[in-house]
Amino acid sequence: MTSPSTNRAAYPAESLDELAAKVAALTPAEHGFAYFDPLAPAAHPTIEGDLSGWIIPAKDLYEFAGMPTTFGSRARTIARSTETNSFIAAYQARGAAIPGKSVTSELGMTIDAEPRDLPALDNPIWPGRTPGGSSGGAAVMVARGLVRAAHASDAGGSIRIPSAACGVVGFKPASSQIAAHGFITRRVEDSAYLHQLTLGAPTPRRVGLLTTPLLAEVDVQPEWERATREAAEALAAAGHDVVEVGFWPAIAETFERYTDIFSYRLGDIPNPDYIAAWLRKRGLTVSAQRYAESLAYAATVRGRLRDFYGVDALLTPTVSSDPPAVGAFSQLEPAENFAAQTRWASWTSVFNIAGAPAISLPWPVPGRPQPAGVHLAGLTLDDAELLTLARELHE
């Protein structure tokens, strides 16, 4: 296992008093908390473990006993949860303090941070623009320096997209499911530590550079394409075999299968609203047989990508452009909202249906303080191997 950074100056002090003072000085649109209580029992763990001294808020898409859960909607709010999500319970059992929960979009279905009938979040490095989502609150907290790490989850890019928008690190581990739990951090090594992974020595890899959007026809903003190409040059200079690759012809069927699975699972959602209602309506047209066939197809996607591209990892932009304005997605009709999301995030969900590990890393853009996000996904690499490669781009 890698060791967490001992350079305290690189991080906010993991002090509840200091965190509380910082949160009190910010508005709900700025701090990213859906709920914050520094006096909560979970904020003062009695368990000693490898995460003692870490403050790791939980994503408000999941229940945590003793705290409210909004699921990203005022109408869905549970005033006091009595159960705790198993992933959150696992890192709590390692000694982490959990003083609250981070803002998410409704049911985690959109890549903004605008819960229904609750305050929308602002981007700490792009004022007036979305911080991305659905783990937007987690990215805001880390980018603003409130915490070292925050719990997040990802079913289509929800860890990686807000990380790219806010200039931090977002790692989605490999998973046999479309969705995966993880963390948003400031350093690759901290992501490895949180996931209890050992990073090895750099090993030469074959990396495919893919700047062609997969899910939609959209022009990639020059700063984001240039950042990705510079990252490719850095990997080549480090001894990796970097080859430029192109469009994957199977993407249309793959995304259709992904949408089948995603929407079918909304069939039991009570009182769906807005985009949830639109997706649920689509899901009701998916038969149980089609759903089963789509799950079987999903199990082949990583192998299909590996066979087509012939590389160990793919390097892409995380998103196609700088973050859009707050409200840019939510003002749209559901179908157009969904289409707009695929134009902005035209790569990430492919690696959810593939079950592949993937990470977004900040890359400096000359002439401005905000970085772009570059994205690495492992086709033959496991979690630790991908993070070892990513560490070469972001120490």
TrEMBL record:
It is an enzyme of class 3 (hydrolase). Keywords: Hydrolase, Transferase. One of its GO terms (molecular function) is amidase activity. Gene3D superfamilies: Amidase signature (AS) domain. Its EC number is 3.5.1.4. Pfam families: Amidase. Coiled coil: none annotated. It catalyses: a monocarboxylic acid amide + H2O = a monocarboxylate + NH4(+). PROSITE patterns: AMIDASES. Residues 48-189, 290-387 form the Amidase domain. Belongs to the amidase family. PANTHER family: GLUTAMYL-TRNA(GLN) AMIDOTRANSFERASE SUBUNIT A, MITOCHONDRIAL, TRANSAMIDASE. This is amidase.
